[in-house]
Design a protein that fits this description.
The protein is 22% helix and 39% strand. With 199 residues, it is α+β, with helices and mostly antiparallel strands. The N and C termini lie close together (11 Å).
Amino acid sequence: MRRSVLAALIALVVLAGGAAFYYFRHRTQQPLARPLAGREQDIQSSRVAAVRETPLPNLLQQPGLVSRRFAPMRLYVSVAPEIAIKRTDGGADSSKDEILDIVPILIVLENDSYQEVDARRDLKLEGEELFNVFVTHSASGIVFRHSEPAVETVWGPAERKTFKVPWQPTIESLPGECVISMRLAFGGSDEVQIRTRLK
């Protein structure tokens, strides 16, 4: 399980690295010398657009990772595609098996622009919650809920904040398919979902 989680984290780093590479390469390129008459406003607008957000797609999905852009913010949700919920001691007595304590759900909120973003001021965040997460088991229904308090609501340019949601499996978390749904509390955002399988 730890290797799968690590692989997802590496994927996040690769995506972020690609965005950073694009940004710095763009800044070091010199514009072509050409007359600006009649096109100065268009050129200035394109430059502003280039530094407001990275060139990553609005939605990116792969096993163990989903990424989606919401206005100037980019959301990453990562969980292992398969999770062994029981630890066995290798003996014949299954009563000694242990249920996994925590299934880590990694959530990253990144300012996908190069300007400061205040979620309350710029994204219409209201209330005391930043986001909500719930896990739905294919056989048992909703087996976990989590609300993240809106403690830090300001992101500096290209700043990233990481949240580790501790899903604690219970007796209801039988082997089967699970859907992890996450909804941001600002911007009228839709749910982002990622799947995992308990085994």
